[in-house]
């Protein structure tokens, strides 16, 4: 359980002068929103970093006074409506900068052109698009390994367990978020995403697309303690409609005095759905899908291939605390936005690294093709599949997943794979009614060609 902040003294410096004048300089040094490392600390953490003998309530009041001068209004949430505010921290500014530089549709086109072989880039991106659906499911408790989940999606086999159904549902929901990127937000769209994401898992439990009608939904921590009671079900749809109106309002005009960058707005939408908890279950998945939907809508297309849930999954307690810090400190959204911003910075870095690795591998692979004499024997699609296999991005291939990743016909995909077998580069085996192909060990390939 986190430590809630103490009551705030509205005039803390009067108390400092009258009661702690000998240490006034120490209190004065606390009159800043951030600590000396640029962190926006909640009282839960701040209390351990105060010097011995400093009055905790008074110190907190001094910090809150500094923050109040810089907080900007965002949106009203809950019942009764609470004003949510935020402060632009260094991490938030960095996440905005990284998003603007590396995740727009224009940036994605530039990356594809720079790599020189857009087909390789396309295969990489089609592989990455699955990651968010898988990680988001695992964050919600799906006990399925990433390898098994990848196989499930690539081979498009029928899910056999509730966990596999969850992954398929999340994948469909993310695909739907992309398809619906030109729509305005509405209660119908929120319900539609939920239905797409959870239908067929356990309909009696999830109640696909139906907003909750009772107040028996709570959020518990790992020890079973209730950490969040959502606002009442009464008035829920109207509150969501009000939220949708705010989301649909243009705040990204640079001349607008109420300017809000799309990344900040997307994170706020993520928080709002988690806070309102409009469904019996599956709220986290919908919240994250709507975060992506809003960025897609504003042409941050590379986020289709950037997964935040992989990193959220690695520290689920901190993810939960970022909600609670906001809720326990006058709905100060800075805690949640700052935490998400730090996650996004790392996720974009991972995406850029995957791109750089692919670019470097393509260069090395092309040298191998030229030196081995294979270059003139392979068509473009075969070069791409062989590169992907060699890089380890995928180990098994079927005509169906080649068809999906390359956007070609099934017959063409089948010919691509069988041609690689004929060239002594791949081998194949039967799995049920389906042929599965994989690359031979590199040493064996070299031996085959030397022979």
Provide a descriptive summary of the structure in words:
It contains 22 helices and six strands. The chain is mainly alpha-helical. The protein has a two-stranded antiparallel ribbon with strand order 1-2. A hairpin with a 2-residue loop joins strand 5 and strand 6 (434-439). The longest helix has 39 residues, at 334-372. The chain is elongated. The N and C termini lie far apart (68 Å). The model has no long low-confidence stretch (mean pLDDT 88).
Features:
mainly alpha, Fic-like fold, two-stranded antiparallel sheet, 22 helices, 451 residues, 6 strands, Arc Repressor Mutant, subunit A, elongated
What CATH calls the topology of the largest domain is Fic-like fold
- Taken together, the total number of domains comes to 3
Q: Report on the biggest sheet.
A: 2 strands, antiparallel
Q: How much strand?
A: 5-15%
CATH architecture of the largest domain: Orthogonal Bundle
Specify the structural class.
mainly alpha
Helix content: 55-70%
CATH class of the largest domain: Mainly Alpha
**Separation of the first and last Cα atoms:** 68 Å
Radius of gyration: 26 Å
In DSSP terms, counting alpha (H) and pi (I) runs of 4 or more, how many helices?
22
Strand order in the largest sheet: 1-2
Counting copies of identical and different chains, the oligomeric state is single chain
User: What general form does the structure show?
Assistant: elongated
Query: What is the fourth-level CATH superfamily of the largest domain?
Result: Fido-like domain
Mean pLDDT over the residues:
88
Query: Low-confidence spans: pLDDT under 50, at least 5 residues?
Result: none
Please count the beta strands (DSSP E, at least 2 residues each): 6
């Amino acid at each position: 359980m986190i430590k809630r902040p103490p009551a705030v003294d509205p005039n803390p410096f009067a108390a400092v002068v009258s009661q702690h004048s000998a240490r006034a300089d120490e209190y004065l040094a606390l009159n800043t929103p951030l600590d000396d490392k640029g962190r926006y600390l909640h009282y839960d953490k701040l209390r351990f970093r105060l010097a011995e003998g400093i009055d905790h309530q008074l110190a907190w009041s001094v910090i809150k006074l500094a923050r109040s001068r810089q907080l900007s209004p965002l949106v009203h949430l809950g019942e009764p409506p609470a004003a949510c505010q935020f402060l632009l921290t260094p991490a938030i500014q960095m996440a905005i900068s990284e998003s603007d530089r590396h995740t727009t549709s224009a940036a994605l086109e530039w990356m594809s052109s720079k790599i020189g072989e857009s087909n390789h880039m396309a295969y990489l991106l089609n592989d990455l698009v699955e990651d968010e659906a898988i990680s988001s499911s695992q964050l919600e408790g799906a006990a399925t390994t990433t390898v098994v989940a990848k196989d499930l999606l690539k081979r498009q086999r029928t899910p056999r367990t509730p966990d596999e159904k969850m992954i398929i549902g999340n994948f469909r929901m993310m695909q739907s978020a992309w398809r619906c990127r030109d729509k305005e937000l509405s209660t119908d769209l929120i319900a539609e995403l939920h239905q797409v994401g959870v239908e067929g898992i356990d309909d009696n439990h999830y109640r696909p697309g139906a907003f909750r009608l009772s107040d028996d939904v709570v959020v518990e921590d790992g020890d079973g303690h209730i950490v969040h009671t959502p606002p009442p079900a009464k008035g829920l749809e109207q509150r969501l409609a009000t939220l949708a109106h705010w989301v649909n309002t243009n705040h990204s005009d640079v001349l607008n005095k109420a300017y809000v960058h799309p990344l900040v707005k997307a994170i706020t939408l993520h928080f709002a759905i988690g806070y309102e908890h409009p469904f019996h279950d599956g709220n986290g998945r919908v919240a994250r899908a709507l975060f992506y939907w809003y960025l897609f809508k504003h042409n941050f297309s590379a986020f289709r291939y950037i997964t935040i849930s992989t990193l959220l999954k690695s520290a689920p307690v901190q993810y939960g605390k970022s909600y609670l810090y906001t809720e326990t400190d006058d709905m100060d959204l800075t805690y949640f936005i700052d935490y998400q911003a730090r996650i996004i910075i790392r996720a974009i870095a991972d995406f850029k690294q995957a791109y750089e690795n692919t670019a470097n591998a393509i260069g090395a692979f092309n040298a191998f093709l030229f030196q081995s004499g294979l270059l003139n024997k392979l068509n473009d699609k075969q070069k791409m599949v062989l590169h992907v296999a060699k890089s380890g991005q995928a180990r098994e291939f079927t005509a169906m997943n080649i068809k999906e990743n390359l956007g070609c016909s099934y017959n063409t995909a089948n010919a691509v794979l069988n041609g690689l077998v004929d060239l002594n580069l791949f081998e194949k085996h039967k799995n049920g009614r389906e042929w599965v192909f994989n690359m031979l060990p590199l040493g064996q390939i070299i031996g085959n060609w030397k022979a």
